[in-house]
């Protein structure tokens, strides 16, 4: 199935597409049909070496030019991404199966936001001057050097940009390894960055499984690793990076709570719960999959939720009327199905959905369980699919305690008409990215990331600068040196 934006080779290194057919073949599957649409080759050791040496060769000169010049290139790339949004959205849809009604508005556009935002910041990155009597200290904000980005499969364009934009703004080089499930989009990001004027070698994309990610993480020439992935992978990558005392950003999984009080606006709360569970067919790390509903509003909430789920348009993702697409892969579909079986076996009440949809591709019905209790597997483990667990609660205190009883801490949300309560509850949530009367907004201006096992570091916002640069302090003595002997 040819499409206009198909990349021409597996890797993008030193400013050009590169192929090495000695690498194991990775088939690229369109999740809406199960058809193979492309093949890429896993990076061989020679490809990995090429990516590292070209990045190292380019980085110092890049860090030496002014931030304004670096930013200009990133902002040009942002404009080009916006101009090509339609084609990039088609590619994102082929890579992930997410419907065009999402990809046209969220994926390339949020990547462009990151390039524009960090491009704008690049010229204002400075150190400070600290006067100490006649002596003084100045600090220099310096690049880390070579950063490795490793992506998950749910937002391949966005993740490639969210990691690349701050890294490049701060004067680093980046090697990005997309998930083997969605290898295509990051290649286009690299192509556009270079078309916008990025010098060769500064943003290289190489393909492969964790077997390619692992040697990148341990290579002594790599200074920083930024991973978006699951907690088990995060543990491995964090430990491997620790061997070399490397900087890390870990954007990992979640099992986030969404607390809906009796006084919430019902329509908004249902809308929030839909955004928190069914966008991208539930394959979103920050999803609020434990929906705590206060008992007084529970029946009305479940009824309205079912009504609105009946309006979901499930089908061909290329049809812009479709608003619910397939899971990314047969494997992910079967993982999610096994959780649905577990939910029923452990006594949760299936309110709607639960079945694979009879058509080509990996479609699963939007699924809601009610009467879920805290000890059930579907309330404890990240499912990463369109499965909402509704739990009942009586008091605010109880909801807060139960919401925090999890190893994860990525997100949390609250719906209430009592704004004082909204702020009070959110202040007590052990989570990094929180929402009041909203869910799953991720503007580039706001820090994004998790606490507890959901990660370390923050992406987006000025906070990301701290994770892609380091401070050097320089003491300057103005007088004689007073030594003891
Ligand atoms: P995985 O953890 O399976 O993989 C993440 C990436 O790490 C992939 O590119 C993978 O390669 C690579 N990888 C696997 N093992 C290693 C290793 N030992 N060394 C280096 N790299 C390795 O996650 P998924 O791709 O399945 O994505 C889903 C997960 O990502 C969910 O848990 C989700 O919550 C999380 N996520 C977190 C986000 C956040 O910002 N907090 C955002 C989006 C998703 P490959 O898969 O190709 O083998």
UniProtKB/TrEMBL annotation:
<keyword id="KW-0520">NAD</keyword>
<dbReference type="InterPro" id="IPR015590">
    <property type="entry name" value="Aldehyde_DH_dom"/>
</dbReference>
<protein>
    <recommendedName>
        <fullName>Betaine-aldehyde dehydrogenase</fullName>
        <ecNumber>1.2.1.8</ecNumber>
    </recommendedName>
</protein>
<dbReference type="InterPro" id="IPR016163">
    <property type="entry name" value="Ald_DH_C"/>
</dbReference>
<comment type="similarity">
    <text>Belongs to the aldehyde dehydrogenase family.</text>
</comment>
<keyword id="KW-0558">Oxidation</keyword>
<feature type="active site">
    <location>
        <position position="251"/>
    </location>
</feature>
<dbReference type="Pfam" id="PF00171">
    <property type="entry name" value="Aldedh"/>
</dbReference>
<dbReference type="InterPro" id="IPR016161">
    <property type="entry name" value="Ald_DH/histidinol_DH"/>
</dbReference>
<dbReference type="InterPro" id="IPR016160">
    <property type="entry name" value="Ald_DH_CS_CYS"/>
</dbReference>
<feature type="domain" description="Aldehyde dehydrogenase">
    <location>
        <begin position="19"/>
        <end position="474"/>
    </location>
</feature>
<keyword id="KW-0479">Metal-binding</keyword>
<dbReference type="GO" id="GO:0046872">
    <property type="term" value="F:metal ion binding"/>
</dbReference>
<keyword id="KW-0560">Oxidoreductase</keyword>
<dbReference type="InterPro" id="IPR029510">
    <property type="entry name" value="Ald_DH_CS_GLU"/>
</dbReference>
<dbReference type="InterPro" id="IPR011264">
    <property type="entry name" value="BADH"/>
</dbReference>
<keyword id="KW-0630">Potassium</keyword>
<dbReference type="GO" id="GO:0019285">
    <property type="term" value="P:glycine betaine biosynthetic process from choline"/>
</dbReference>
<dbReference type="InterPro" id="IPR016162">
    <property type="entry name" value="Ald_DH_N"/>
</dbReference>
<dbReference type="GO" id="GO:0008802">
    <property type="term" value="F:betaine-aldehyde dehydrogenase (NAD+) activity"/>
</dbReference>
């Amino acid at each position: 199935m040819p499409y206009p934006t198909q990349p021409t080779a597996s890797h993008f290194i030193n400013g050009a597409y590169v192929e090495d057919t000695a690498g194991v073949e990775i088939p690229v599957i369109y999740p809406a049909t199960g058809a193979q649409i492309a093949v890429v080759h896993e990076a061989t050791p020679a490809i990995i070496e090429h990516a590292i040496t070209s990045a190292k060769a380019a980085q110092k000169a890049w860090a030496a030019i002014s931030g304004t010049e670096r930013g200009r290139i990133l902002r040009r790339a942002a404009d080009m991404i916006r101009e090509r949004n339609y084609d990039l959205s088609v590619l994102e849809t082929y890579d992930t199966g997410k419907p065009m009604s999402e990809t046209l508005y969220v994926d390339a556009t949020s990547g462009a936001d990151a390039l524009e935002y960090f491009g704008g910041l690049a010229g204002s990155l400075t150190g400070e001057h600290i006067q100490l009597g006649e002596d003084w200290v100045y600090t220099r904000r310096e690049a880390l050097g070579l950063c490795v980005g490793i992506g998950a499969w749910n937002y391949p364009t966005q993740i490639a940009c969210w990691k690349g934009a701050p890294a490049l703004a701060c004067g680093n080089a980046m090697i990005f390894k997309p998930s083997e499930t969605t290898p295509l989009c990051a290649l286009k990001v690299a192509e556009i960055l270079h078309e916008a004027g990025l010098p060769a070698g500064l943003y290289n994309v190489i393909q492969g499984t964790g077997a390619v990610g692992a040697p990148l993480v341990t290579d002594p020439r790599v200074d920083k690793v930024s991973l978006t992935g699951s907690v088990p992978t995060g543990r491995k990558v964090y430990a491997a990076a620790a061997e070399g005392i490397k900087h890390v950003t870990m954007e990992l999984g979640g099992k986030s709570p969404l607390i809906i009080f009796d006084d919430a606006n019902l329509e908004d709360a249902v809308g929030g719960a839909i955004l928190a569970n069914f966008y991208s067919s539930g394959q979103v790390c920050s999803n609020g999959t434990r929906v705590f509903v206060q008992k007084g509003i529970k029946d009305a909430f479940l009824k309205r939720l079912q009504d609105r789920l009946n309006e979901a348009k499930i089908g061909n993702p290329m049809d812009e009327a479709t608003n619910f697409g397939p899971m990314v892969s047969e494997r992910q579909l079967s993982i999610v199905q096994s959780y649905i079986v577990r939910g029923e076996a452990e006594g949760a009440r299936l309110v709607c959905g639960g079945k694979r949809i009879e058509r080509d591709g990996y479609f699963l019905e939007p699924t809601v369980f009610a009467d879920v209790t805290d000890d059930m597997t579907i309330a404890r483990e990240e499912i990463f699919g369109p499965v909402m667990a509704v739990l009942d609660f009586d008091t605010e205190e109880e909801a807060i305690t139960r919401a925090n009883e999890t190893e994860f801490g990525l997100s949390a949300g609250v719906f209430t008409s009592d704004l004082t309560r909204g702020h009070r509850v959110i202040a007590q949530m052990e989570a990094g990215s929180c929402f009041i009367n909203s869910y799953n907004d991720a503007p580039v201006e706001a820090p994004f990331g998790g606490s507890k096992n959901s990660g370390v570091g923050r992406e987006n916002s000025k906070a990301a600068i701290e994770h892609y640069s380091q401070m050097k302090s320089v003491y300057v003595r103005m007088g004689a040196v007073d030594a003891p002997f």
